[in-house]
Design brief:
Elements (H helix, E strand, L loop, with lengths): L26 H4 L4 E2 L2 E4 L1 E2 L2 E2 L7 H9 L4 E2 L2 H5 L14 E8 L2 E6 L10 E3 L10 E4 L91
Antiparallel strand pairs: 1-2, 2-9, 3-4, 5-9, 6-7, 7-8
């Protein structure tokens, strides 16, 4: 009976990944002293010229990014931002960051050769040299990768049991109402008001028509026959 031997897989070697580009650097951080309109330029990258052999746009962009710089635009090269910085590129044709329909514009390294104007070339065309630019004051970068939103792990909150609260019985203290004794009221004596005196009607004096009895002698009747 033949034994079964374990099969060991060959170790796999992972290809090294290129280190990420450093953050953008300002003109002062790069030590570039030629500044035009707030933009500085340079031909040497880490002390080397990249004019021959020619490079693709991706290679040129990567070279500038490796020192914290970027490719110059067509207008910046026309303004002589990198003029006189070496590598004989004032008369050379270099890649720019200016986008065109088929890729990116290439143009003269300075205003010394601008008669023909910039031309459009595909990014993978290996035919041109490299000059780099940066700013005195760096803009806010928009090339930084955006962080993916993280979904927080659900948190399980332990149930909280509220302890029963026993209300202490409240005993109402008896309230004694003090008896109120009404003070005797003494009526003030009333003095009777004297009634009106009866009005006496005036006595009418007897008139002359009233015959006063005569106390003189009464005349006797005459006995003479009529």
């Amino acid at each position: 009976v033949h034994g079964i031997f374990p099969v060991s897989s060959a170790p796999t070697t992972q290809a090294p990944t290129a280190p990420p580009a450093p953050p953008r650097q300002s003109c002062s951080s790069l030590g570039w002293t030629r500044v035009v309109n707030g933009i500085c330029g340079e031909s040497e990258v880490d002390g080397a010229c990249y004019s021959a052999p020619a490079y693709t746009h991706t290679e040129a962009k990567t070279l500038c990014a490796s020192i914290g710089a970027r490719l110059c635009s067509v207008d910046e090269l026309r303004a002589d931002t990198a003029r006189g910085t070496g590598c004989m590129l004032d008369y050379g044709i270099v890649w720019t960051s200016t986008v065109c329909a088929g890729g990116f514009h290439v143009g003269g390294g300075s205003s010394k050769i601008q008669a023909s104007g910039p031309t459009c070339h595909a990014r993978d065309e290996a035919a041109f040299s490299v000059r780099c630019c940066s700013e005195v004051t760096l803009p806010i970068s928009t090339d930084a990768p955006t962080a993916h939103p993280t979904t927080p792990a659900p948190t399980t909150q332990a149930p909280t049991s509220a302890a029963p609260t026993t209300a202490a019985p409240t005993t109402a203290s008896p309230t004694s109402t003090a008896p109120t004794s009404a003070a005797p009221t003494t009526a003030a004596p009333t003095t009777p008001v004297p009634s009106a005196q009866p009005t006496l009607e005036p006595t009418v004096a007897p008139t002359a028509a009233t015959a006063q009895p005569s106390h003189g002698p009464t005349a006797r009747p005459s006995l003479v026959p009529s």
